[in-house]
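Continuing from the previous page of notes. For each protein in this section, the sequence appears first, followed by its structure tokens. Read the first protein now.
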Amino acid sequence: MSVDDIVKLFDAITKLLNVLICPGVLLFILIRFGRDLREFFSSLGELSLKGAGFEASLKRKKAEVAAALSAAAVTALPQILGCPDSSMIHCIIQQCPIKY
């Protein structure tokens, strides 16, 4: 084996290690710190990333989603109970299992 062959072999080995080490390190971090990362991202309200030529942002809108769901539930209540809209309160009181 000549010196040129050894250099080519060394170059091939380093390229192979480069390809294997980066995903390996990422996988190790995800496995080792997975629970902590999940907790961190679940409590995160807003995330902004800026890089060379791109920008990304994520915003969690819990309050708006909760308000929209409650408004949808209140709107759908008369149809669920089978009552016309005008007598919704009366219909709810009639169907209430607790009698006053």
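Done with the first. The second protein uses the same format. Note its length before scrolling.
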Amino acid sequence: MSVEVRGIWGRIDGWLAENAPRSEMPGPADAQSVRDLEARIGMRLPGEAGESLLVHNGSDIAQLIPPNYCLHGVAGIEKNVLQCELPLSGGRSFFAHCASGEDSDARGCEEWPHRKV
């Protein structure tokens, strides 16, 4: 795991301990769960996302800054990715639409690397 990801989570955990002591973040996902997730969704997670899961498997119900946002753990990522694989109007999935390059400005298209496992 990179020093950068570990350092960022250290600062977040420290801030939460000081400012929101009742907030409880989930423990880490194990490396095999992350590899299994990548196999099930058919693509690699961006590096920092996979590393982050090894520190905290999402944020569970703990809301982060900005308010009302949370980080998905392994199960949440899988659920959301599989929903993005459902056909949109026009018959293609969100990922297929983004990978086609026809609308690279579509919300979210620029954020996913589309690399197959």
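What the second structure shows: Residues 3-111 form one domain. The longest helix spans residues 3-19. We return to this in next week's lecture.
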